[in-house]
Amino acid sequence: MEKMTLQDSNQPNNSPLLNSEADSQRTLYPYVTGTSVIALKYKDGILMAADMGGSYGSTLRYKCVERIKPIGKHSLLGASGELSDFQELLRYLDELILYDNMWDDGNSLGPKEVHNYLTRVMYNRRNKFNPLWNSLVLGGVKNGHKYLGMVSMIGVNFEDNHVATGFGNHLARPILRDEWHENLSFEDGVKLLEKCMRVLLYRDRSAVNKLQIAKITEEGFTISQPYSLKTFWGFSAFQNPTVGAEGSW
Amino acid sequence: MTKQQANWSPYDNNGGSCVAIAGADYCVIAADTRMSTGYSILTREYSKICKLADKSVMASSGFQADVKALQKLLAARHLIYQHQHNKQMSCPAMAQLLSNTLYYKRFFPYYSFNVLGGLDNEGKGCVFTYDAVGSYERVGYSSQGSGSTLIMPFLDNQLKSPSPLLLPAQDAVTPLSEAEAVDLVKTVFASATERDIYTGDKLEIVILNADGIRREYMELRKD
């Protein structure tokens, strides 16, 4: 592990301000990570997609991680980044929903409230220099209002008609900006998400061909069984990539 | 496993430009609606303008999460003020509160660059301009954010405010009419958008005058 200290390397390091990484008690970099999550609004609600890979650096360590989870009755949460931090966040949210439920007043937290809560948790942890290493996507429907938002590791948050984390922001969002419209049907929404996931599968090395698509509407949520996309690797440029660009060696 | 990420930073710059112009009986506050990180656009429709009281409006760029925290804090402080005094805070009072709030976090600053515009107790337009740690000044016009280096000299050239060193003190409000000020704001943003990659998508303009508050929008380049 790389040692980071301002002192001479042969001197003992006792200052708490000049800590080496080894005795640090906070996340300085992630261990097991998930890659992009993408989501969009469609006619009746929200659709969200994420693959099921969990990477340990560049090693594909886990191949069946659920990165989309329901929160309460009206929301779906998708996460990329450190998977253990995501699981801790799910415990916070479980408690939040439980305590809200115990009022037994017929009220329940909607996607807007949950998103705001996530915003505050992420920002609070960055203020303590102890971030939850995630990019989060929160979507939901309540009282006829569709809601889709994002929160980053340091608390940056916004709403939009379609969102994507990580590589998805580079590769999927241009496609979404091109093809998204307000009245997408469920079938067209799924097709659009699959198109984005396929691009990510081809170009994002940590993406795996096993994904889940989730939907949430006024009626409730459904998370699909894991499935694969059809791929085609037979392009001549894939088979002999150096044709026409041989180089000097 | 070796470290793959750059060292973590609690800050980000989400870009954006803000402008405010004060006139004799109006104030124009404007900002673009693009939010970026690095070379990526996060969203094309994020409002950087926040109405803090009936006669004070703040436009902020910089780090969005800090800006949001600042807006929430000022909203809470203003609510307490209303309960205690049964009135809206004046724009100069809000200006001092904003300065104090920023300086309170002097050693872990809010990374936000603000202009506060509004009407003072005489109904005259006022603009306050800030740095991230709370230094502020009342001026006739100002610009903050990623495009400010392009916008500010243009405003200087067009509006030629009297030197603050003159004695007796000269009024800083601009001689423009409200419609001229709105046109000028549209021009400076269209220009800044040409060269500043963090400015663009849409322009939001808030106009305060004796009649109340009004909003206008103008499309900007999306590239």
From TrEMBL, chain A:
GO cellular component, one term: proteasome core complex, beta-subunit complex
Region entry Disordered, spans: 1-21
Major localisation: cytoplasm
Keyword Nucleotide-binding: no
SUPFAM superfamilies in alphabetical order: N-terminal nucleophile aminohydrolases (Ntn hydrolases) (SSF56235)
Gene3D superfamilies named among the record's database cross-references: Glutamine Phosphoribosylpyrophosphate, subunit 1, domain 1
Biological processes annotated in GO: proteolysis involved in protein catabolic process
CDD domains: proteasome_beta_type_4 (cd03760)
InterPro entries (alphabetical): Ntn_hydrolases_N (IPR029055), Proteasome_alpha (IPR050115), Proteasome_beta4 (IPR016295), Proteasome_bsu_CS (IPR016050), Proteasome_sua/b (IPR001353), Proteasome_suB-type (IPR023333)
Transmembrane segments: none
Subcellular location: Cytoplasm; Nucleus
Skewed-composition ranges (Low complexity): 9-20
Keyword vocabulary terms for this entry: Cytoplasm, Nucleus, Proteasome
Family the entry assigns: Belongs to the peptidase T1B family.
Oligomer status and interactors: Component of the 20S core complex of the 26S proteasome. The 26S proteasome is composed of a core protease (CP), known as the 20S proteasome, capped at one or both ends by the 19S regulatory particle (RP/PA700). The 20S proteasome core is composed of 28 subunits that are arranged in four stacked rings, resulting in a barrel-shaped structure. The two end rings are each formed by seven alpha subunits, and the two central rings are each formed by seven beta subunits. The catalytic chamber with the active sites is on the inside of the barrel.
Function (record text): Non-catalytic component of the proteasome.
Name by which UniProt lists this protein: Proteasome subunit beta
UniProt source species: Ziziphus jujuba
Gene name of this polypeptide: LOC107419581
UniProtKB/TrEMBL annotation, chain B:
Localization in the cell: Cytoplasm; Nucleus
Any Pfam family the entry gives: Proteasome
Keyword Aminoacyl-tRNA synthetase attached: no
Record's keyword terms, sorted: Cytoplasm, Nucleus, Proteasome
UniProt keyword Metal-binding present: no
A GO BP entry: proteolysis involved in protein catabolic process
SUPFAM superfamilies: N-terminal nucleophile aminohydrolases (Ntn hydrolases) (SSF56235)
PROSITE patterns, sorted: PROTEASOME_BETA_1, PROTEASOME_BETA_2
UniProt main location, coarse: cytoplasm
InterPro entries attached to this UniProt entry: Ntn_hydrolases_N, Proteasome_bsu_CS, Proteasome_sua/b, Proteasome_suB-type
One GO cellular component term noted in the UniProt record for this chain: proteasome core complex
Assembly information from the UniProt record: Component of the proteasome complex.
Function of the protein: Non-catalytic component of the proteasome, a multicatalytic proteinase complex which is characterized by its ability to cleave peptides with Arg, Phe, Tyr, Leu, and Glu adjacent to the leaving group at neutral or slightly basic pH. The proteasome has an ATP-dependent proteolytic activity.
Stated family: Belongs to the peptidase T1B family.
Protein's UniProt name: Proteasome subunit beta
Source species: Ziziphus jujuba var. spinosa
